[in-house]
Amino acid sequence: MSGTVYLVGAGPGDPELLTLRAARLLGEADVVVHDGLVDPRILALTTARLVSVAKARSRHTMAQDAINALLVAEARAGHRVVRLKGGDPFIFGRGGEEVEACRAAGVPVEVVPGISAALGCAAEALLPLTHRDAASAVSFVAGQCKGLSEQNWAGLAGHGRTLVIYMGVATAAAIADKLMMDGVSPAMPVVVLEKGGRADFRALRTLLADLGGMVAREGVISPALIVVGQVAARADADDRLHALARRAEALA
Which residues lie below 8 Å from residue 37, measured CB to CB, with a gap of 6+? Predict the structure, then answer.
């Protein structure tokens, strides 16, 4: 008898941000196929067999086609399979591809949404992605998308709009240059949200023109999000541009 594949969102890191259903399925699973960004505290909630399919920018433990085949094979063996993903399965998590693979193979599949990284990390920094006085629209984009130079993000960031960039640490300087080229003000506030839901979480604010410089100076590493827009000025964040200016004045 075929088992079932559950695509489960693990949220941004903190186990307390799991949904009740996600926690229950972890307790009932036979096998958990998990991403590298899933917090170890969440993996500790299950006694199931763990299979890591961690992906990095230039290194994949397992290709996506192989992950799809693994999910199908485990379900066909009669197992309850939890495919555990950081954030939400359908926001830059390739959940759509895995659902399609399961359906094509005739394997039952269900999706359990999670708190997305954008929502969870913004909440941790007290950063409202929308605000009656500052933003009535939000866009999510991938900072590692192919053809970055051909993208036109002018309509995604600016007055009244918030832009949340996933996977943008490695290309932060190029992203800032592209946004300014597309007409976004160099003085637009930006916040980098690093390691949300973890003990070493950081929220660092600067201006768009300094984004690449700040990421390099502060040694920001993934997982991290970049939030561009007037709402960034409202976040509970360390204002690195002003701190840099104060240090320069002190040395003058």
Answer: 54, 86, 223
